[in-house]
Fold this sequence. Notes:
By secondary structure, this protein is α+β, with helices and mostly antiparallel strands. Helices cover 30% and strands 41% of the residues.
Amino acid sequence: MLKITNWILNKEKSTQRITARSAGFVLVHLADLVQNGWQYLLLKHSQGDHWNFPKGTVEPGESDWQAATRELEEETGISNVMHIPGFEATLRYQFQRDRRQVDKTVVFFLAHTDHTKVALSPEHTQFVWLPYDKAHAQLPHANSRRLLARAENFLKSHFRNISQM
Length: 165
């Protein structure tokens, strides 16, 4: 009977669901005014060894914007960004952590910076500023590639002449 009870308890633990909320940035800088080139900041996470945009957990009492700016500064040392209004994207996905299913929501804002020097936190091992095509190829997850494409299309449609930024 004990074995069955333990199996039932373990089974219940494995089906527990938790929710998590994060916020971050698709951060761009103007690389070349002549070619109208934006470059996107990607960070390589030390756990999982994957590339993605700067993002992190929304703390109690924080807005998504506050969390995104705090996380950006913590992860990169960049604190001076210009919000590009009209763009906000929400990604939802699921993963397993400690035998629990995590339902994650991440809100992304689009912002521009002139500061390209990055001071990485221990959470990340590398950073890179890349043009769209190379950034798209670097991102391992389809939802991140779709987010990047959406940001690129937004920039192209709203800033036909890059000097408007």
